[in-house]
């Protein structure tokens, strides 16, 4: 939900607008946010794959895909000043559909 809050959106906009003038700022933001999130999900998906819960032969690619699915159009709308409320049914439905789609795509092999 943080990516749809006003502080989260404002920070994303700021980093994007300043990234050409301050690549170091963009690098730090990326490493402390998106890269860290991807690493945590990669580890989690590795554990699920190793336990046979899901079939995820490339956990890092799966983490990137999952993040993209969850962020989706809602994040793009928020960046353009049309954010849904993070607690809205629209957001809940979007996340549920993204998770459902991801889990179906990574169901354990029979």
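Sequence proposed for the structure above (110 residues):
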């Amino acid at each position: 939900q943080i990516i749809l809050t006003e502080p989260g959106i404002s920070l994303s906009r700021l980093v994007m607008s300043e990234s050409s003038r301050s690549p170091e700022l963009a690098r730090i933001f990326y490493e402390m946010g998106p890269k860290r999130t991807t690493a945590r999900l990669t580890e989690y998906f590795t554990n699920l794959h190793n336990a046979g819960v899901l079939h995820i032969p490339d956990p890092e690619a799966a983490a990137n895909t999952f993040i993209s699915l969850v962020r989706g159009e809602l994040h793009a709308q928020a960046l353009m000043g049309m954010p849904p409320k993070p607690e809205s049914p629209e957001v809940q439905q979007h996340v549920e559909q993204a998770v459902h789609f991801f889990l179906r795509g990574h169901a354990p092999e029979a």
